[in-house]
Amino acid sequence: MTTTPTTPILGVSQTTNAVAAQRTISQPNTAAVMRQSTLTHLEHGPVANNGRPLPTSKATPIGTWPKDDTQRAHVAAMFNANLGKLANTPKGEQRLAFQREVHAHWQRLSDKEKVDVLNEAGKNVKSGGISRMPTLAEKDAHALNERLATLSEEEQKKELEGLSAEQRKLLDAPKLRGPAVNWLHHTLAAMSPAARSGLFQHVDSAAKEGLELIRTNKPNQNFIDTDYDYKSFLKFNENPITLPPEARGKEVLIVGTGAAAATAARMLLQAGAKVTMVEAEDRRGGRLESRHYTNTNGTTAPEFSEMGAMRFPPTGRTWFHFLKQFGVKTISDFPNPGKVPTKLFFKGETIDWKPGAPTPDSVLLKQVGADFGKFASRLTAPIEEARKAHDSEKLEKIWQGYIDKYEGKSFFAAVKEGMQELGIKWGKDQLDAFGALGIGTGGFGPLYPVGFLEILRVMVNKLDDDQHLLPKGTTDALDHFYTAEMTDPAGNSVSLEKNAEIRLTTTVTGIEANAGKSTVKLKAADGTVQEKGFAAVVVTASPVAMERMGMSLPARDSDPVLSKDVASAITDLHLMNSSKLFIRTEKKFWLDDQGNPRKDIPQTIQTDQSPHGIYCLGYPGTDHGVVLVSYTWGDKSTKLLGLKPEERLEEFKKVIAQVSPEFAENLVPLNGELHNVDWQTRPTQFGAFKLNNPGQEPNQHAAFYQYQSAEAKDPQPDSGVYLAGDGVSHTGGWVEGAVTTGINAAVAAALHLGGAVADGSPMDIRKDKYNYEGRSAA
User: Fold this and answer.
1) Each residue of 268-304: pLDDT tens digit?
2) What is the pTM of this model?
3) Residue 190 in contact with residue 229, Cβ under 8 Å?
4) What letters, b where the CB count within 10 A reaches 16 and e where it falls short, cover 637-661?
5) Which residue, of 376, 518, 742, 758, has the fewest CB within 10 Å?
6) Cα angle at 597 between 591 and 600, to 5 degrees?
7) Which residue segment(s) compose the domain that 360 sits in?
């Protein structure tokens, strides 16, 4: 393929392609090629002039940079001076802009210049020169450290005897924080081991020690399957994707209006594309749905029910990045079992679970909890160790080993086998008890048949840790994706609300691809069908909904929309059933008059009966209570389908009365209003969330990496249609999987339109990182 490079802008790799329908792949600047280039240069000693042209195109930079390449000899010194300035830049928009400016210049440095920067930065670590403004005590500690280095061992001992414990702590652990440290940590952690080693072999030992302190300052928090930092890709790149002038205004279709769709749509609109969004339902949001109650006078009440996603772990860093950007607050207050006053109803017996206790007050359940803790720790501890050390090679080896062992095993089989390996005997009582206890957020018995790797992902990605809720609701949070304004390439202020065409009650009934362009059949609520062409299409619907669009069928008179492997994947991936029933109560009966939890009323109940999980939700600033009377999955959800919501409530109250009669008595729906959902019966969803069965990991792999068909080197056909949504992610049912795949699809669509993506984009995630067939990768 012939490519003609053009001048990069703000660290963005940009090329134009004269063939293949203007597809753009920056071959010289892909991560793999750049890594190899770095190693080649450094094996023969750093070279001076393999960097990109300076300066960046920014008219008024925040830092002091060379005016042009004639001043290139001073770039390393200027870079470190700018790091010092960045370290003390107050929090706000200018700090973020400065970090992005530093990041853009780093991408332009030659290998030798990078080594020079790292040498100086590494030496400045302990002095606080690139950390945030050190305190007076820290400055004194640094001065003492410098003096101690000149003393004999006996003199050092005498000097240290007079120090307090806090002073000793300052000596031993320099404070490593602030915007400069954060940027440098990201930069070092994002490098491949080979690329980092190539640079570090030319860095002084003292500087290397300081750099290692920064690199390992925070553990690797990336999700296990990709080990990719989506948050930093967005944070440190002012323009993650760009479109050339001739591609701006081309129309892109986004199928869906949930988190994945809104993420992709925002990125493409900001880059200059014309965005059309279609939604089969009469509301936007997908499975982010805060359904508000109605007051007796017909007005909308502040209380609401979260019909879809409701728990948000901070390890979903990309989602939290957006929430922070939009000023959306979360609270670490979700009433999970054991976090609030909890009771279990297990085999006809009521069992207490005190807040903060690791397990309920039951000999059997305590033992089951301890046993599973040993099993889980044996699997998660090695991963945590590798993450703390940022040892990506070790991390890959561990996870591949787990894939080899567990890819074809169910949750039930893996737990049973794991106990046997530990010499622990589990019979039916223990397995039933674990089904009621789960791994911290309630019973997982309905999930026993699913693939164990899906459950293991929840554990190693810490999706069950410190779950937050959104006090104003998920619909409110998603609305910010639509209303928050951005600046497009022409300098205009744009938003999805103002500038995207959003069609509700419109379904996609077919997609055809021809020479990289798509023709889509759109069916309106009145039955009218329109055929319309689009330059690119992003589909964020559930895998079953994709199948209903005909995407799994072989093409007849057009190019294939999806490869055979991906088409097979969307038909085979397993969707989990799920049901919820909410009511609004007159008061928050589980709280006392001061708003504190009552000791005689549980806030959460878990049962082995039909209600399964019961949660009391007292949203701040509201007068009435909201109770999730039943949250069920899988087979337990299926068994409820024959009952009307009112009938379900009466059945649930019978079980709850066994645990707490007063709790059951308070379950009177205000104004008789019930909110019920069975996600498997929603004609636009066909299920609640993707959860692989044993043996489906290869399907998952094919669906997730479909977006890389936009790269020329990828063997898949590039139809211009890209998949997104948590249903094709490795974290089905979690909003993080939705927003990250939305980013993937936006990057792919930009490349397909002839655009460019910033260095280190999701296109650099290695598709061959793991072998999901369950055999060790060669």
Assistant:
1) 999 999 999 999 999 999 999 999 999 999 999 999 9
2) 0.88
3) yes
4) beebeebebeebbeebbebbeebbe
5) 376
6) 90
7) 342-460
